[in-house]
Amino acid sequence: MIAVAIIFAMQQKKFSTSRFEFGQLTEVKGIYHQFPVPSIKVTTKQDFFGHSTYITIPLVGYGKFGAEGTIAELEKEKNILLDKMEVTLKGTLLYSDGKTLLQIDKNENPLIGVNAGKTYSPPVIKELGILHLTGEILDPKCYLGVMKPGSGKPHRDCAIRCIEGGMSPVLWVRTDKGETSYYLILDKNGKKMGDELKDYIADPVAVEARAVQYDDWTILFLNGKDKIRRTGGLSWFKTKDGDIHCSPPPKINNAN
Amino acid sequence: MSTSYVAVGWNRQKKIYDWLIFGFCFVYLSIFVLLSLIFNGEITFETLLIRSSSTLAVLLLHVILAIGPLCRLNKNFLPLLYNRRHLGVTMFSLALLHGGFSIFQFHSLSNTNPFVSLFISNTNYDSLAAFPFQALGFFALVIFFLMAITSHDFWLHNLSPKVWKTLHMFVYLAYFLVLMHVMFGVIHYERNPVFVIIIFAGAVILVALHLLAGIKERRFDNRKFNLIKGGFVYVCSVDELENSRAKIFCLGKERIAVFRHESKIYAIHNVCKHQGGPLGEGKIIDGCITCPWHGYQYLPHNGQSPPPFKEKVSTYDVKVINDVVWLNPKPYPEGMERSGASLTIDNHE
Lengths: 256, 349
What we know:
The structure holds two protein chains of two kinds. Chain A is mainly β. Chain A is 14% helix and 37% strand.
């Protein structure tokens, strides 16, 4: 019996080093963007020539909700539209694998300040063409910080709840070499997807979509459910984690 | 076996048993938590809680299900049977901790009621790979809950033993649901084959134990008694009966316990009115036939529990002729007094 405890404890899959700074509030200052997903673009440093490096931090709400509701309430309360304005937000950071998110909770008075006079720099946008990717759709909040594991079948229901609650779905792709990439998913019109993705969440899927680089995030504009399919099969019979991996993209299609 | 109900009729054996359960759980959880923290330092409190409670609950479930057939195969396991209900309630408590916290973790703080979300978030009931495993666990938990709240003798008597036993046999359905919950759930994530091997081995062991116990019981019941005279069946010689002990015979699909007590032979129905224990495997203590499972008692000459208790079993006629025991398999009404067969010379033909 004790042997069973030892085996179960030691043979568990290793968890990621993701962090959720629960109970710790951090002030973040940057330019708020409504599109493609509510996020705050933070300039980290400038070099001698004035070139900035930055990080785009998508915003998420408290619990299993997106941030739109909180932002809308703040805008109504302050009677101001925050899009493209420099704001100082207070929230809880979560981060992993080079990506950072900020949870804002209306009960914590997240809007510290607004600077309408700050010059707005539009995002750097680059068309990447049609990509064919194999990965797993998950909610970024749980995967990048709050839950361990934040992916796979045990977490599926939670991911569905988060995405249907307004969180932006993310396609998590791993290459055979262990490199990871994250792609925000929107529909072809740039609208958030929720219920349409329900059957594909937390399962290996193959996706064909137009990819656009927005600053330091890549967006996949998914043109309908027929461009996504589950790769299928019982996980029991898959021999390695590499079953979820990125196939090399075809030649870039510049039709768009 | 009391006229008024108490929550737990504590005695020394029960206290020892419960301390052993507590000790085992404590050791298991300590090892699991400690090793998880050492070898998987990034684990969170929530995941630790969910996994430690679930693995221990599944382990206890296997133990609980093994006790029955083990006791039929070897009487040395009987002490485990005595307080099995406490094991069951402990297992349910752990399962409730796992299930309750999981529902909170994965379904609360969302745009849907957690219990509704449990059934509508993942609706791939037509897919094995994507099957909503959490619903399976939920239904298993409901069965365990019903069993736990009816585990007291109060419910045994008020639901009737037959209904109570039927309800508690649903443990096998719950076990199946738990197996599927694990196989369609966490096993899809934890791809290490050792988990599948352990789960599979547990199921195989339980099936094997049940089959072996069943084969043994069937062989016992199929034993033929061909010597019949005037309605009486030759069953054994007097020498085969130990004093204050019994032998069990299956006649006409009923098991009858033949006891030797104070120079007399008595026969009563073998099945205890409490939970169907084998009275013939017990012994006579202070003049009462005592069930080996939970200590229920019956007087050998009339099959009645000693006052103020009210349980009764059927009695049978028995004769001793030339040191041979003859048994009439026709039962008398429960509680009817029968004089038994004397072992003195007068009764020998």
